[in-house]
Design brief:
By secondary structure, this protein is an alpha/beta fold. The chain folds into two domains: 10-219, P-loop containing nucleotide triphosphate hydrolases (Rossmann fold), CATH 3.40.50; 234-337, K homology (KH) domain (GMP Synthetase, Chain A, domain 3, 2-Layer Sandwich). It is 35% helix and 22% strand. The chain contains ten helices and 13 strands. The strands form three sheets. Strands 4, 5, 6, 7, 8, 9 and 10 form a seven-stranded mixed beta sheet that branches. Strands 1-11-12-13 form a four-stranded mixed beta sheet, covered by helices on one side. Helix 7 (234-250) packs antiparallel against helix 9 (295-312). The chain is globular.
Length: 343
């Protein structure tokens, strides 16, 4: 039996420093054992690098990364601004290894948490090898898209403008479709960006997107073992699966006031026991989260447990606790304690 009772903080090291250390290490020793599996020497012509996925909130960035790597590691919700930490997903093919950095949606922040999220997203832009700027193909390019485009104006790395949600455009009038496409074509042509249309839901256009991303990477080594799909610890993903269910089940009532920590993971041969704490800001939110007779919390736990069982391919016992932490989103200290990287 393994008892991992000490909470782990997600590894949120600066991408720039990480890139430098990984490249130096790979150059010195092309076959390493990092405790996560053997990293082989890359074949001739192999390409590798970091791809920053950026865009406004709720344009489908997390769905896209999950589809590209073939496994769910980022939470998906119709509620904007649900990605909070820079999450790295890894796609390895016969010819390339792409490390996707799924950043929080860039938006006008309204509290300390929002400031931290936007700053983390912006810092990732200049640290990657390719930028994938994802936009909503159901909407004409707006002020938020142009704001991000301005942030990219001095970026020297290759940029692809990805127009997502093309599967949902069947009911739009042709004149509206033309206006949407024209707005993004103008945005891209002014800056010399490549444009690719795709659907993260149906996977239409994703092979072409993957090919274009690969072509823009430089010749390089494996940064991670080929079988790895994320650099995030298992506890972090468990916490995100709980938070996803809170967002989906409570919608606009709670999402941005909630944080989750995994306090204990205890494993034996037959079952994994997980103890987690859900933090909210006000006593009045307890009733929403717990629900009548505890039914809401029970449903959150049941749904999250099912997702965790898929993650670890085994049985899970999940116990949830609720704790009030007033104004945690406004406090840099509280944010750091809850696992957010605060510069």
């Amino acid at each position: 039996m393994t008892d991992r009772s000490q909470p782990e903080t997600p590894d949120q090291s600066v991408v720039e420093a990480y890139l430098s250390s990984q490249k130096d290490s790979a150059a010195a020793n092309p076959a390493q054992d990092l405790g996560r599996g053997l990293i082989p020497a890359a074949p001739e012509g192999f390409r590798s690098g970091f791809v920053g996925i950026i865009g406004r909130p709720n344009v489908g960035k997390s769905t896209l990364m999950n589809q590209l790597i073939g496994q769910k590691i980022a939470i998906v919700s119709p509620v904007p601004q649900t990605t909070r930490n820079r999450l790295q997903g890894i796609l390895t093919t016969d010819t390339a290894q792409m490390i996707f950095v799924d950043t929080p949606g860039i938006h006008k922040p309204h509290h300390k948490l929002g400031e931290v999220l936007v700053k983390n997203a912006q810092s990732a832009i200049g640290a990657v090898d390719v930028v994938l700027f994802v936009v909503d193909g159901m909407e004409i390019a707006g002020g938020g898209d142009r704001f991000i485009a301005e942030l990219l104006i001095n970026v020297k790395t290759p940029i692809i403008l990805g127009i997502n949600k093309i599967d949902a455009r069947t009911d739009l009038r042709q004149s509206h479709l033309d206006a949407i496409d024209r707005s993004y074509q103008e945005l891209a042509q002014e800056r010399g960006w490549q444009v690719i249309n795709f659907s993260a839901v149906t996977e239409t256009g994703l092979p072409e997107l993957q090919t274009s991303l690969t072509e823009k990477l430089e010749i390089g080594p494996y940064y991670y073992p080929p079988e790895l799909v994320t650099d995030q610890p298992e506890r972090f993903i468990m916490g995100e699966l709980i938070r996803e269910q809170i967002i989906l089940l409570t919608r606009e009532e709670l999402p941005h006031s909630v944080a989750v920590t995994i306090d204990r993971v205890q494993e034996d041969a037959k079952i994994t026991r997980v103890l987690a704490t859900i933090y909210i800001e006000r006593d009045s939110q307890k009733g929403i989260l717990i629900g009548k007779g505890g039914q809401m919390l029970k449903q959150i736990g049941s749904n999250a447990r099912e997702q965790m069982q898929k993650l670890i391919a085994g049985k899970v016992y999940l116990e949830l606790f609720v704790k009030v932490q007033p104004k945690w989103r406004q406090s840099g200290l509280r944010l750091a304690e809850l696992g957010y990287r605060v510069d």
